Structures
1.
Amino acid sequence: MFEELRTFVAVAETKSFTKAAKKLSFSQPAVSQQVKRMEVFFNGATLLTRASLGGNVDLTKEGELVYKRCKEILALVDATMSEVTPHRATELT
């Protein structure tokens, strides 16, 4: 699920499935599938809408909330990894 969270954040920040795919070294269909899984996970909520001009995507009200929480979750995971990884390396030596 963390991959979907990171992908959703990338789409939200780049406002583009294509740009997010390039940034993450994924195919555009893979990014679309991951965002779709996020929407299914959140009971079919629409998280993104296509902007009328330029083909960019915008966050819906629900998408803004999910984006905020994704950032918080990923920050906690990254912080935890930083805290755990040095201890684990020390234990193994």
2.
Amino acid sequence: MTLLNQVKTLFQRETVFCVSLVLAVLSALAVRPDAAYLSYPDYRTLALLFCLMLIVAGFRSLGVFERLGRALLRRAGSLRELSIALVLLCFFCSMVITNDVTLITFVPFTLLVFRMIRREGRVLTLVVLETIAANLGSMATPIGNPQNLYLCSAAGLTMAQFARAVLPYAGLSLVLLLAVLLLQRDEPLGEERPEEEGEAAPLSALAPYLLLLALCLLVVFRVVGYLPVLVCVALVTLLVDRRLYGAVDYALLLTFLCFFIFVGNIKRLPEVNSLLQSLVGGRELWAGILASQVISNVPAAILLSGFTGSYGVLLTAVNLGGLGTPIASLASLISFKFCAREYPGQMGRFFRIFTVWNLLFLAVLTGVAVLLT
């Protein structure tokens, strides 16, 4: 493979990282690298992201989430119950394991189950609702998605401030999702059911990851420092299963680092800094939602946080901004990839369903946000 093809492949796989790298390099031409660059990154956020990726990879290696899904689905008595179970799995699991890991886990499982019960005509709509559920459910906790983790760390939001910014919308999202599912046509299921695969992981295997997750939560709540926890997670992972290091999304970590450099440099350019502050200040809700549609909500959170002090409103904006276009939340692209592989001839229909439901949820939630903020 030629160098040009390698670059093209990298850009296709890691578009946001490549864009962030270009922005970081261009900004470095305007602000020459110096000692101040070391103050740009939020090291606490980067350390927490790294730790959580290792911990979630550990849970996945033990098949925890797939077993949970199979256990719930075996109790479903109708198509409606099955759909509700899957969507709720995505909504609540995303609060702990993040929206992208949730979709990586449950979208392929959903496609498999609906093929087994011969209801493939209904699966695309369900995958779209699962995607919306993962994106909206993940807003409810500080560790549910990267933008929450970053803004909570960088802004030092209290739990009360965090709750006011996101919980009303998470609660309304759950109500809307259930209403949509209950209004859909119900059908009895066939005899096929997902079967349990092998023995469940013993508690002794889960214990290290549960303890490490508890330590990370203590870091989020600023009870302990991030450096001791980072060392602890790294050493335990090395001892328990060093293969988990290969499951870390290093491109996401580098994307954060590049955006930290870009924003840090932009803030040192007085004219640009003043312009962005005047554009964002007082318009955080619309700035966050609209920027997310173009560059996705994680980069939007990093970029806009440098030019406003209204972090609560910005937190609301970038979480709601995950709805809309397919790139508004990069987790949505995971669903696109799985469906494109299974149903390549139906991607036009999938895009239409995705757009209609995302815009509907975005319109309702944004209307509520306008009233509340």
